[in-house]
């Protein structure tokens, strides 16, 4: 803090538009004893006490515990890179830009709750062959797909790009699990959930607004959560039509 | 042979074709239309056809993947019952109602006095014009950093050096829209100043001389000569800048990429909503309906301004 009471260094980044909305949805809600959605991801179920507790836990980090401030240094990753935030929650894709950090840093799993419950969020992409491919092109694309999904290619992809391998046999080698940087990410995969978004930007927006209503407008977390659940359910229902 | 004798007879004349039977007048008309056809086809193909296509799309549920299905006015119904749309509608007019008068007032005052400055006139004018040449995206990002809280925000850094509390700028729904509007006004200022100066210079100095001889004061000259004769310039700038503020996008998008149009939709203009509906939610039909609304607003506002400021 400076003389005017302004934050100049923070304990952890609070950036709901970054990865924090995933942390809240798939990790915190579950750790507070709830579930964000039904198993088919067609119904929002975080609008219960667990959701309220999870939201309050998150917003309290700024309003009560004062360990971070949303919007500090514009983005959480920028605050961490500048060495002005102690911790940040981010994905493997960020490792490249953190590689040149001028200070010592490390990776660890997301914290478990008091009962030892852990949860995480993981997203993946799928390679596929277009339905209109035929003949030579189809053959070539099959060969290509076979190669990019081979253990060899996945290991190269991890080394060069930093994305985790999809094959367990490749991902969970002793070397990879013992890696101080990739190890924690790989361990996190074991208890990770993948949100099935129908409109990721739209659904993320309902979550960002939910936190902003509490942090900026000082709204009641429960009212804000109910509003977000209503909006997100409308997006999911709309896409199902 | 009749053919041979025919050609002998017509030596020195052009062969008879359909073209040659036309009179010079008709030929001219044909040439004119040939040349005119090009821009007409061009505009028909890339302007008018897509415009009508958008009107049609606004009545469908096209989502890029499945073929468009006619849904009547359903898109318009859901738009009118969407609170976000009304918030966005309000924001769009806030940009217009604050932006246009404020930017015209500032640029007029600058032009009026800059016109009298002789010292480094060209240099000062260039300084005002410079922001107009800058890419809006780059400008948006630089201002976004100006507005950050300490330790990186220049404006807040300055305030705290003076011992004043930090301002929220882009982080609060109350101040974000105005914070985005300021750089937008600043960016367009140079253009408006140049046009106003040109308008001021076009007023014959004899009018002023005659007025002075008749004993008119500065204020009377300003009201009776400068303002009325500047009317065509003012109309142009009002229409031009209104259209600019009604379709503001670059500044908003670049200054709020983390939470586009936020916080809490407080800065989202119609164009950004259209962009998100179309290219992040892929609801092309709904986006087309919003486009039709924007088109109608632009049309009505422009016509109203021309009517209000018409020559009487």
Q: Can you walk through the features of this model?
A:
- The complex is a heterodimer of chains A (241) and B (312).
- Chain A has 241 residues and is mainly α.
- Chain A has helices at 16-31, 49-63, 76-81, 95-98, 135-148, 151-160, 168-171, 174-178, 182-189, 200-215, 221-240, and strands at residues 10-12, 85-87, 120-121, 192-193.
- In chain A, the strands form two sheets. Chain A has a two-stranded parallel sheet.
- In chain A, helix 1 crosses helix 2 (49-63) and helix 10 runs antiparallel to helix 11.
- The radius of gyration of chain A is 20 Å and the shape is globular.
- Chain B folds into two domains: 13-57, no CATH class; 76-308, MetI-like fold, CATH 1.10.3720.10.
- Chain B is 71% helix and 0% strand.
- Chain B contains 15 helices and no strands.
- In chain B, helix 7 packs across helix 9 and helix 9 packs antiparallel against helix 12.
- Chains A and B meet through helix 10 of A and loops of B.
Question: Mind sketching the topology for me?
Answer:
The complex is a heterodimer of chains A (241) and B (312).
Chain A: E1 10-12, H1 16-31, H2 49-63, H3 76-81, E2 85-87, H4 95-98, E3 120-121, H5 135-148, H6 151-160, H7 168-171, H8 174-178, H9 182-189, E4 192-193, H10 200-215, H11 221-240
Parallel strand pairs in A: 1-2, 3-4
Chain B: H1 2-9, H2 18-21, H3 24-57, H4 74-80, H5 83-114, H6 121-133, H7 136-146, H8 154-161, H9 176-201, H10 205-213, H11 218-229, H12 231-246, H13 250-255, H14 270-279, H15 284-308
Helix pairs in contact in B: 3-15, 5-9, 5-12, 6-9, 7-9, 9-12, 12-15, 14-15
